[in-house]
Amino acid sequence: MKKTKESKEKIRFRRTKKMFLIDSFQKQHKFIANIFKQVFKIRQPEHEMSYEDLAAIGVDSNRVTYLIRRFTFMLRLCLLLAVVDYFYALYLFIHGYILVGLMAISVLLLLLANAFKYHFWRYQLLKKKLGCHFKEWFSDLVKGVK
Q: What are the Cα distances from residue 26, in Å, to 3, 21, 39, 131?
């Protein structure tokens, strides 16, 4: 009689697991964790490239000049839009639209991230050094090197 009582408890526990979909939750959390791992995974380049290798892929001095002008334009455009968006977010916060203001701040952060990207690429082409480090870029930015 004791065995049947234990087996009923085990069956109840199994039913409870099925009822609350514990296996499904575990699969879902593993899936979400794998997605986050793939999204935030830093991909390593297949091979390092130097400034001299640009000629091998068809980028000549005229193209480099064009890219520098294009990156400068995109940098200035992103910064202009960031300033406009900042004042718009400030206007929204003053008038009490907090959630919309937070959305405007998120757009501002995206614009600033793009401005950083274009400035960094421009800096690499001007210095004729691909693959420079953030520390180098920041130290030259603080010194005011163009």
A: 31, 9, 20, 41
Dihedral angle sign, alpha carbons of residues 126, 131, 135, 138:
positive
User: Which residues contact residue 132 at a Cβ distance below 8 angstroms, ignoring those fewer than 6 apart?
Assistant: 123, 124
Name every residue whose Cβ is closer than 8 Å to that of residue 104 and which is 6 or more positions away in sequence: 85, 88, 89, 92
CA distance 55 to 16: 66
Give me 79's structure tokens: 């910064």
d(CA 85, CA 111): 9
pTM attached to this predicted model = 0.64
For 58-106, the pLDDT digits (tens) are 778 888 889 899 999 999 999 999 999 999 999 999 998 899 999 999 9
CB 124 within 8 A of CB 132: yes
Closest CA to 64 of 16, 124, 135: 124
Would you call 65 exposed, middle or buried from its count of C-beta atoms within 10 A (0-12, 13-18, 19+)? exposed
